[in-house]
Design brief:
single chain; mainly alpha
Length: 209
């Protein structure tokens, strides 16, 4: 799933769809992150930040993504907006971790798939919170990481979250795709409503004249 989504996104960026896929992230940044992830992903470097508190293992590529968010989210945003983004990341993490925890006990009543529902809902929330690609990227990274940490905490040592495994990458890219598709859908709806309003205004003006 990760390879499939990445190939689609790379093809869209290479064929001129970058203004819709990642309008505010430079091609240099995308290429650099892609190369670093491809080089480091086969490695077996894991880090347990708090082994005595929570059973979490972070892969080196995920640590790289977490560091990259500080560069992506820097800019002219004021502190209130940055605080809003932090709050959104925590909300995504709570939803993500709670859904994972619920499906451990009862994986029957799911929406689409027990392993897909958390990233899809997290991506939709992210798309509703902000429409900027770089902010969505940062929110989903932190939401996915903290959400898995919350899942490990809620299961009280019965679950070890391997953040950076293949299943985690699938969830991450599903959330990214959901956020971008939802943002594009909202943009399309706004454009359609705006054009319909202009058309109705012209029709009304023509009739009144």
């Amino acid at each position: 799933m990760s390879i499939w989504i990445m190939v689609i996104m790379a093809t869209l960026v290479a064929t001129g769809w970058k203004p819709y896929v990642a309008p505010d992230i430079s091609k240099r940044t995308i290429g650099l992150l892609g190369i670093l992830i491809a080089v480091l992903l086969p490695s077996s470097i894991w880090w347990s930040p708090m082994p005595a508190v929570v059973q979490v293992q972070l892969h080196v590529t995920v640590c790289l993504l977490l560091l990259s968010t500080f560069f992506l989210l820097r800019g002219s945003e004021n502190w209130s907006y940055r605080g809003y983004l932090v709050l959104c990341a925590f909300m995504i993490a709570v939803i993500w971790g709670s859904i994972r925890k619920i499906y451990i006990y009862d994986p029957v009543f799911y929406w689409l798939d027990p392993s897909w529902d958390a990233p899809i809902i997290g991506g939709l929330l992210c798309g509703a919170f902000t429409s900027e690609a770089k902010h969505q990227f940062g929110l989903i990274i932190w939401g996915a990481v903290l959400g898995e940490c919350l899942n490990a905490v809620l299961q009280s040592g019965a679950y070890t979250a391997q953040i950076g495994s293949l299943s985690w990458w699938d969830s991450f890219w599903i959330a990214i795709a959901s956020a971008r598709l939802f943002s594009l859908l909202l943009k399309l709806i706004r454009m359609t409503i705006s054009k319909l309003g202009i058309m109705l205004w012209h029709i009304k003006g023509g009739r009144s004249s």
